[in-house]
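User: I'm writing a tutorial on reading structure tokens. Could you give me a worked example: one chain, its sequence, then its tokens, then a sentence or two explaining what the tokens reveal?
Assistant: Sure. Here is the example chain.
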Amino acid sequence: MNDADSPDDRPLTPRPSAPHRAVDEGGDPACWLDQVCDACGRIRERPGSAVCEHCGAPTPTPPPTPTGNPSGPAPSAPRRRDRDEEGRARNARPRDGLGRPLPYGSPGVARQPEGVPRTPAESLTEAQRLLDDGMPFHAHEVLEDAWKAAPEAERELWRGLAQLAVGLTHAARGNTAGGATLLDRGATAIAPYAETAPYGIDITGLMAWAQELTGRLTGSGAVPAAETAPRLRRRET
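And here are its predicted structure tokens:
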């Protein structure tokens, strides 16, 4: 029996013929990564605001598009929203190894391609590889792809896994408040799946990991991403 044939890889419900488009439904995003204030670590309730309503820190904005006159003043018009080749909104700013935005034009670590079709087993394997390599931000992108394509009965499962990866991302950045917030949200989202543990996911173990890591974040600095990464699936016995 190969990995794809394992009973743990059977979906909870038949998969829909067309992938779910998260952008069409509104509501909460999968991971809340862009809603966390880098200054205070709290969730911004008004993400479009120029400042964080909790601490007053300015919201980072991309630089204006340069004009043909290098000696003239920078234009004041806002930059258009970045989009991918299919016209979907996708931030094009380069990122470092933990997904922190860098200035436009800077060298960065390549992001995961969006919209790659994967089976649940493939998504978990790829996300685990990235977690083990100390790249939880990139793992979250794989898990968010799985969330967008998941049937309704599994959507909170994949959302929660993506949120746990983002929680580790913030913890590795030293943003303890943001890390704790996302770890709690992720653990809460996956909790209802503890009894069935679809695809062999170690729901109980992940919840315990999130609780333990949250406790360690109180008053501490950044944690090492690779050494702190959890196991997504139960180990074979």
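What the tokens reveal: The chain is about 35% helix and 0% strand. Helices lie at 120-132, 136-149, 155-173, 176-190, 203-217, 225-228.
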